[in-house]
Amino acid sequence: xxxxxxxxxxxxxxxxxxxxxxxxxxxxxxxxxxNGQIKPLVHQKVARNLDGGRLGNEGELxxxxxxxxxxxxxxxxxxxxxxxxxxxxxxxxxxxxxxxxATTRVDYKPVDSGEASASIYFYIGRLRHKIVGARGTVKLTxxxxxxPKFQFTFIGLWVGVSDYAQGNGSGPMAAFKDPEEVSFANTxxxxxxxxxxxxxxxxxxxxxxxxxxxxxxxxxxxxxxxxKGSILFEAPDITTKDWLAAIKAETRxxxxxxxxxxxxxxxxxSGPKVQLVDPAYQxxxxxxxxxxxxxxxxGTVADDFTITIQ
Length: 310
Known about the structure:
Layout: E1 8-14, H1 26-29, E2 30-31, E3 34-47, E4 60-74, H2 88-92, E5 96-101, E6 105-110, E7 118-124, E8 127-143, E9 149-163, H3 170-173, E10 187-191, E11 194-195, E12 198-204, E13 207-214, E14 217-225, E15 228-234, H4 243-248, E16 252-259, E17 267-284, E18 287-296, E19 306-309
Antiparallel strand pairs: 1-2, 1-7, 3-4, 4-9, 5-6, 6-19, 7-8, 8-9, 8-12, 10-11, 10-16, 12-15, 13-14, 15-18, 16-17, 17-18, 17-19
């Protein structure tokens, strides 16, 4: 029987020991995702280039095997302020630390060391791919009258595939709350002290992970973080704000994206030292727009951004 592509199903659970299967279960670790993709066996090839007195292909060694996968999660609150969102374990596995302030908020901030990992089971029907030692990066995207999403990308160690029943994930998936669209009613974006009319935005938290295989170690290493983004917003009256002057002056100031209409629904992304670069003009509904890149700069250690669920 063929495996059905539309029956994709993802389980993710933090690891206690790096690379040791944490055994995620459908009843506790199922994720409600969209656009799931997987490269089931990424590898390098080593040509043998033998001198055998003959012509022809001698084949290659397959070495350095790992897995890449990606999925989207709707950016929504947890349902109650001070409660971690169901997708929190995925954020933690993207080199972030979780801090819960009871009844108030949950913060996710980048770490420079001590990064976590996760075990992930990626199902396509009954075809189960096991990945351990997975580490990832994430990007937040949003556009007017569309659902904002966290786009996760992970790489992890290849374990293998098997035929295995998915299980029932309806319980944990119910903890993923319904989203709200980016709109006048639901979303407020301020940059350098100005409230913006934003058409679209993205924030790439820029975690740089690589597969490493040497004597004594195989795993996914976290090497750096380069948080960047882009934004498309209405050009204001220049007497109100001269954005080109701010860009030329290399100004760095606060960015805050607050999405969600009420407590328990809010997702907030903030950066204290955000720089605009590469401005360009665009037109939207006959209005002048500014498209610009964003650098989420670090000030003191690991303060370049905060994701707050409130």
